C-alpha cells in the first residue's frame, strides 16, 4: 500500500505551515471573517486547486504523449458549499480552456475524458461527495 504523509504546524492565531512529501512548505490561514489574517491559502480552496492540479498534470502528460498542438491551457474550478455544518462542496464545475491555432478538439476531448474518468485520483475523490460537471472550451488563437 502506498501512503502519503504531511506535517502541519500551528504558527499562532489561525495560521499553519504545512510540509508536503517533496519538502515544500506552504501557509494555511483562515480569512479575516473567520479570525485569520488572510496570509496563506484557505483549506477548502486548496482542495479545488488540488483537483485542477491533478487533472492538469494528466493533461500536460497526455498532450505531450499525443503530440498535440496546444500553446496554453488552464483549468477553472468553481464549487458550491452546503449551508449546514460541516460545510462541504456538493457541486463542482470544472472548465478546461485550451489555446492554440491548430487545436484537435476530438483528441483534446479524449485527453480530458482520460483525466476525468481514469487517471485523476482527486477527481475520483471529489465524485464521492459532490456532483462534478465538466466543460471544455477551445480558443483558436
From TrEMBL:
Q: What is this protein called?
A: OsmC family protein
Q: What is its EC number?
A: 1.11.1.-
Signal peptide region: none
Major enzyme class: oxidoreductase
Q: Which GO terms describe its molecular function?
A: peroxidase activity
Q: Which domain of life is it from?
A: Bacteria
Species the sequence originates in: Flavobacterium ardleyense
Q: Which UniProt keywords apply?
A: Oxidoreductase, Peroxidase
InterPro entries for the chain:
KH_dom-like_a/b, OsmC/Ohr_fam, OsmC/Ohrsf
Amino acid at each position: 500500500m502506498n501512503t502519503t504523509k504531511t506535517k502541519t504546524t500551528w504558527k499562532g492565531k489561525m495560521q499553519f505551515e504545512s510540509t508536503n512529501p517533496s519538502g515544500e512548505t506552504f501557509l494555511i490561514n483562515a480569512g479575516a471573517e473567520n479570525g485569520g489574517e488572510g496570509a496563506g491559502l484557505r483549506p477548502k480552496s486548496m482542495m479545488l486547486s488540488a483537483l485542477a492540479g491533478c487533472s492538469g498534470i494528466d493533461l500536460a502528460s497526455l498532450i505531450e504523449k499525443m503530440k498535440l498542438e496546444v500553446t496554453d491551457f488552464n483549468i477553472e474550478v468553481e464549487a458550491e458549499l452546503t449551508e449546514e455544518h460541516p460545510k462541504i462542496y456538493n457541486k463542482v464545475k470544472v472548465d478546461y480552456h485550451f489555446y492554440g491555432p491548430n487545436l484537435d478538439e476530438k483528441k483534446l476531448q479524449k485527453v480530458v475524458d482520460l483525466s476525468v474518468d481514469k487517471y485523476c485520483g482527486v477527481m475520483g475523490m471529489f465524485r464521492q461527495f459532490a456532483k462534478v460537471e465538466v466543460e471544455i472550451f477551445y480558443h483558436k488563437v
